[in-house]
Amino acid sequence: MANPGTVWLVGAGPGDPELLTLKAVRVMNGADVALVDDLVNPAVLAHLKPGARVIHVGKRGGCKSTPQAFIEKLLVAEAQAGHAVVRLKGGDPFVFGRGGEETAALDAAGIPWQIVSGITAGIAAPAAAGIPVTHREAGRGVAFVTGHTKEDAAVDWQALARSGLTLVIYMGIARCEDIVAALRAGGLRADLPAAVIQHATLPQQRVVATTLARLPADIRAHGIGSPAILVIGEVANAARLAAQTLHKHQEAAA
Ligand code: SAH
Fold this sequence. Notes:
Layout: E1 7-11, H1 22-29, E2 33-36, E3 53-56, H2 68-80, E4 85-89, H3 99-108, E5 113-116, H4 121-128, E6 142-146, H5 157-163, E7 166-170, H6 176-185, E8 193-198, E9 206-211, H7 215-221, E10 228-232, H8 237-253
Parallel strand pairs: 1-4, 1-5, 2-3, 2-4, 6-7
Antiparallel strand pairs: 7-10, 8-9, 8-10
Helix pairs in contact: 2-3, 5-6
The structure holds S-adenosyl-L-homocysteine.
S-adenosyl-L-homocysteine binds near residues 92 and 95.
């Protein structure tokens, strides 16, 4: 049950509605009102109770984005009105989801909040392409990085290149060319495996397995757009292998 006057920040997972947690379903079912981001699969909204209000605050779909300050005011106002509020976000609310800004605004207004973790795209998208984000024989760890930053908070790509970590990049399509150039300048080899996964875990999922140097051209050639996750590192080779295996199975079945 979602308590009145409380805001629940709920992760809706990467896309496939079955990747929702049981807790997300339970909390949604108790909510009076839901503020919904655009990356949330509409199928997920079936778990709201009949008559629950749905407010779309997303950026896509031709609508202008709802300013973050307005979303925060709305969360506070709905909770103060005594409603059980669900804030539904794609993936995990605290991974590149501005969840931290919203909980700070709620704290400032004295509104109680709870969080329901979701499966983040940075783990689910590689997995859906057959890529394990960590592997004992490939890399010492993984860095989750945004390709979209304010000028004053630029990512040090060259340092990341030297870190030996597998790179999982959110929102990286628009600046892919610059990111690849910076990683190459940092010493990553041209033929390092790389992959891009668009619409991960959804029926329209697309995977392109390539190399670091060819990544920008392949993204263009295949017409890959947002939302997509980039994976750079030895583990990305698994996407190529998975694709080949799939191909073989399809050939065998034909
Ligand atoms: N909170 C979300 C991330 C929001 S930022 C999470 O934890 O997953 C939005 C970015 O997430 C997109 O630009 C894209 O890089 C990534 N993303 C979200 N859903 C995705 C999907 N189904 N397939 C590929 N990338 C996705």
